[in-house]
Structure formats: structure tokens, C-alpha cells
Amino acid sequence: MNVVAALCHRFPEAALVARRFLDKSSKRAAETKPRKGHAFDPTKLVQYLHETVGAPRDVAQVTVGQFSHGQSNPTFTVRWGEKAVVVRKQPGGKLLKGAHDVGREFQFASHLGNQGVPTPHALALCDDTDILGTRFWVYDYVDGRHFRDPYLERASIDERPLLYKSAARAAATLHAAAPPPKLVEALGGPPKAGYLARQVKTWTRQYQGADEKLGVTTDARVADHADRLRSACEDHATDVGGDVDLLSVAHGDFRCDNLIYDEDGSVRAILDWELATLGHPLADVAYLCMPYEIPPFVAGPLSGFRGLNLDKHGVPPLEDLVGAYADALRSKERGADVAALCKAGLPHFDLFSSVGYFRIASICRGVYSRAKMGTASSANAAAVGALADTLLDVSVRLAGDHAAVLRGARAPLEAFN
């Protein structure tokens, strides 16, 4: 852990004050002109949108912008009159195997929208790389409230608990929806057993792939930690792998930053389906709760609540957030089955969180490699990449917490009673 991160851990309230003062992302416009390295001639795109979604044929009648946040697939808006669509494309350059799969995003958004899951309305998937240089998909722009920080600072302190719990309820809606057969078929059929262990294997490979692109050898402690994580997942495969017949759609990046809220505090849309798969629902719940495990960091979009006075900042206790998820499941058709699956995995909640942080560390490493090559999708990619080592430390700590729960030295999280 670097010196700045250590100071954030020691003085979390001061770190949050410093973050508010230094953080430029909160002052940056949500949309900008397409940035250097992402700009393109819009002529072909406008022609494609004219043919598929009814955009004007004349380029002069449309406005193209780019979202200033997001670390993976460059995302643009195209506006004309009162209409707006979002175009989400793969980044340029050589991509890691399986990464940035916009076709996968399109499949999830297309199929789940008919299941009552709040997804953006998918309009088209384009495999013609002559238009933007890479594949892309198009969906209707979703208007509403969006929060780019985990503290929901543009909301009042009084309404923040509702917004956090609305996120938990949206996760319950997603997990209680039976994966549509056509979606399962599009993903190559039912998943194999060992969901969480497969996640560790995938993100170890992605971490090493990012280092190869940087021309460096992966630190030995990354491989050592990954081996221990995978062994823990295999040792408890029944509880953390889940019954493949009961698995849900796991979003893979379920956090408030990927939600659009309505004015009443409900969730209008879940965004960014790139990491979605058929998996264990508790993985998403642990991911939503991950800000509880890190302090406010002075720089970068990743930051958390650890060490803060939660009530002062309108953040519900972790147990209350998980409880809101469990309560929401009770009213769902598959809710009892999903709740039973989660309850069986609850003693391993820290293991789910540890794998989640290992995944974020791997993603940050990939963001850093793309920043070095000039193909990163976010304006603050370098700051994100610098967090990889710190997040790996958090993953190691949580793996230790999981071991402590198993030997009875630490109380497990309680919910789903």
C-alpha cells in the first residue's frame, strides 16, 4: 500500500474532505466532445443510425458527445431534436480475450428488458467495423439522476439511505428474474459448476495479460494470492459456486455508479452489462457493498466508506443494505430459491468480496495499460490504474477475514433469516 493510501486509511474523514477539494470529476461535465484518441468522423455512424433508428441523414442535424466517466467501453451520445441514443463501442487497439464484448452487453439488455429488469432499451448491434473501427451497440438514452461517486453527494443526506436501498432492491429484481432460455442459448448454454473459482481464473489471466501489454512480469504475490483464492473457492464450491439450475444473472459490476435513478429514488435502468454472466447472486450483493471495505481515497473514482461515520454521510450500515436486498426477494416469484442460495453462501461473504476486489485490481491494471497506450475510455484512467496494488491489498485482507470466520474467530454476516 502506498503512503497516500495508508494516510487515507488512517484519517478517512480528512481524506474525504481532501477528495472533495481535489476531485475534478465532480466538476467535469457528464458529456464532453469526443476526446483525443476516441474522435471519429460521424458521417458513417449517422448514416447507420438513419437506417436503423431514424436519425436524420444530415450530420449537421446531430450532436455527438462522449461520457466523461466509465473505464471500459467508450460511450457516446448522439442527439437530434428531442431524441437521444447512446452508442457504446469497443476501444481500439489489441484487446484481451473476452474483454469489451459489446455483443454480450446487447444480449443481456435485449433479453432482460422483457423480464421486468430495468435495462436500457437495446436498439441495434453493429458488427461492421468500418463504421467506428470496432463493434458497437446502440440503446435509448435513459434520462434520470446519475451519481458518479459512491457518496451520492448530489443527493441530500436524508434521501441517501433510500437510494442505496433502491440499488439493493434493483439487484433483487435482477436476480429473481429467471434467465430467459434465448439468453442462456446466446451465452453458449448453461454454465459449468464452480462460478467463483472461474472468476478467479479469468481475472488472473486478465491481470497477467495487462502486464504483458505493459512489457512487465506480473508480481509473484498476484499469482500466489490468486492460487489461495482459487483453492478457497474450490474448498467451498457447493456454497460459493451455487446450483447451476438456480443461478441468476450476475451483473458483475453492480454499484450505484451504474444505475440511473428516477426522481422518486427508484432505479430506472441498470447500465454497463459487459461483465454480466450466469452466476451466483451473492457476488453482486458483495460488490454493491464493497465501498464499506475501503476508505475515501483522495484521487480517482474508486473510494469508500471505511472509517467514516456512516450516519453522518447518509450511508446505511452494511447489514441494513443486505437486509433490504433480502426483504425485496421475499416478494419475488423466485425469491425464496435465490434467498436460500444466498443464505448458504453468506458465511463466505468475505470470500465473494475478496474475489470482487481481486477483479477490480485486475480491471485497474488493464485500465492502466490502456492509459499507457492512449486507448483508455476515461479521462482519469491513469489515476484508476495506480490503485491496482492498493486494491490487491484489500483482497488479501478480506481473504484473511474469510478464514477468520471459518475458524470462528470472527462473526459472519447475518441476513436471509
From TrEMBL:
<dbReference type="InterPro" id="IPR041726">
    <property type="entry name" value="ACAD10_11_N"/>
</dbReference>
<dbReference type="InterPro" id="IPR052898">
    <property type="entry name" value="ACAD10-like"/>
</dbReference>
<dbReference type="Pfam" id="PF01636">
    <property type="entry name" value="APH"/>
</dbReference>
<dbReference type="InterPro" id="IPR011009">
    <property type="entry name" value="Kinase-like_dom_sf"/>
</dbReference>
<feature type="domain" description="Aminoglycoside phosphotransferase">
    <location>
        <begin position="65"/>
        <end position="293"/>
    </location>
</feature>
<protein>
    <recommendedName>
        <fullName>Aminoglycoside phosphotransferase domain-containing protein</fullName>
    </recommendedName>
</protein>
<dbReference type="InterPro" id="IPR002575">
    <property type="entry name" value="Aminoglycoside_PTrfase"/>
</dbReference>
